[in-house]
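All the exercises in this workshop are built on plain-text protein records. An example says more than a description, so a record of this kind follows:
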Amino acid sequence: MSEMITRFAPSPTGYLHIGGARTALFNWLLARQNGGKMLLRIEDTDRERSTEPAIAAILDGMKWLGLDWDGETIYQFARADRHRAVAEEMLAKGAAYKCYASQQELEAMRELARKEGRPPRYDGRWRDLGGTQAEADALAEGRKPVVRLKAPREGETVIQDKVQGEVRFPNKDLDDLILLRSDGTPTYMLAVVVDDHDMGVTQIIRGDDHLTNAARQTHIYQAMGWDVPAFAHIPLIHGADGAKLSKRHGALGVDAYRAMGYLPEALRNYLARLGWSQGDREFFSTQELIEAFSLDQVHRSPARFDYAKLENMNGQYMRGTPDDKLLAVFLDTLPYLPNGEAMAARIDDAKKAQLLRAMAGLKERAKTLIELADGASFLFAQRPLAYDAKASEILKPEAKAHLAALAPKLEALPDWTAHAAEEVVRAYVAETGAKLGQIAQPLRAALTGRGTSPGIFDVLETLGRDEALGRIRDAAA
């Protein structure tokens, strides 16, 4: 049995969108499961729309998601001479022909097809002209030809698709596609087939918007006498409203999901489960995904992207990540988060130590790294704190009096720990007859400037004696 070779082949006309990321993931999982290779090809033949920043964004997105590829990245445009050579070979063996039809003639063909209720197709008028090349050139009146595939006209082309099942295309509906444009540049259809053949690709996994292309490309493989790879065309991702996922549904680029504070492992798990399932099971480690993935279990109907589900999954991943590892991910991601650069600029070893101490409490209340950063903002606040509306409401005269009375008791603590601080506060509550909330809430407002925060005694310990007492006295005043 030959080695399993898959490929991911994005066009660098924009960022790595979420549908492309899922396609890359499915290719990666299948290759890793079979001990094969996943190759990366950048389809940059559209020179006007392909950009270096887009290529960089695709490579960065793949790396961030942890989808490593095998071998060097292949650039399609650099292989144009090879694509042209294959077209010339097809001309020489009679599997392709030069077509001199003008734009006006092509438009007339389309118009006639519309009138007769047929799909617009090239009518093949240059396909079987007898005579010499010189006679053909004379007929062409100086026009430069395109090179067209001589596609089969009878019967049908059958695709045995691993997701869609058996799909049949009547050959009369598939016209003679263009292989080389009149300026000699290869078309996408030719380039894809030549590249997949030369790269040894055995399994193609791509969006089901390419299903008709599979039939057309099969004709090129057959014309060259090459093995046709196995196909799997996966449904596109839809938004919650059932429409094809588009910009109006919100963030689409993988880089945007990083900026929204998702962990790569959580996004990978969520994407794997989008359109592929194994019963009701939601959570898979990377190794479990590699072992469990199967094209047989990919659904034929479009999957719906659900932000609430992703957020929930991300929150569970954050809580399941060890504090030190989550801190490392948080620090790496901080420059990408909204206003994260300002926070990142203020991080030193002391701040890292504070963040690590606070992490257990912070991650319990956060579903994304943005929420984690928001929860950690009390560590970066500078005295005197600005209080939010809830904190201002809490800090009434009675609350301030409690804070003023509590400050010297806390200051007298020999050990500044959450446990010791809690004992002092509980003793004060017992002594004054106040409720715990009447003391804890003002403490929270004083220490964080907010009405919500991680556990208040953990906050006291994390801030340290001097900063915590300073904030309490500021609020009491």
